[in-house]
Amino acid sequence: MSTPPFVDLPPHTEAVQLPTASGELAGLRAVPPEGVERRGTAVLVPGYTGSKEDFIAVLAPLAEAGYEVVAVDQRGQNESAGPQDPAAYTLARLADDLADVVEGLSPDPVHVFGHSFGGLVAREYALSHPGRVRSLAVFDSGPAAVPGRSAEQAKLLVAAAGFMTAEQIWAEMQKMAAAQGAPQHPDAAVRAFLKRRFEANDLGMLIGMGTAILQAPDRTDELAAAGLPLLVAAGAGDDAWPVELQKEMATRLGTELVLIEDAAHSPAAENPAATVRVLTGFWAQNGFMPVERATSSS
User: For the chain, what is the domain count?
Assistant: First the structure.
């Protein structure tokens, strides 16, 4: 769960509703200011228990660099409604939502950026709709199911969502954090947002996405064979998927892991300036190229 450094809307940014076949998703859309050359469109996908606000600190800088950027709440997250049935939160179903979002945003291929579990969703989308992807960036994500301590935490959350309310789970999480001496965010607005966001999560989402992150298959070789421009990056202190595992995945994908200093599992929130530099450098190498829609997969 990422903690945004602030929650007020940044410049060039508005809240939007994004239609999909299963209902609207809440989003934040940032557009280049007047006079800035448009370089393409990017869609940002958050992780398990995350939200569009995980990217709030990079939206304005990316827009000022020439990109229309849309960050989404996935189904059942935060301000996006979702089904109660946990079976509605498979990677394939989430990728279908992403396909509908992209279809409504641009007739041309887009840059897709997935963080953590969002990286698995973005990969699923890229494999099923390669003609709609200009490039794929995965941050702090892994080749398959989350391992180790992160898996144990996901199992606990899935189990808790089976018999507790989101409010009760949040209260227990805060008790545990206090017992461990975890510092609170200094901004009261951010603290209030974190509580509000978690309590808004659909219990079916907590179970369904949690199950998906625990059972995700390794599709690294398929992604390598797809021939898409790829960026694999992580905070230098990431511990969700071990950094060494992410390095191995990058090697299998024919690239190298980019480490973002002064960041752990959430570089877009913890070191947004470095995250923007990495993304814009990568996107500039894989720039805007209109294509005929007939090349798109469905």
Answer: 1
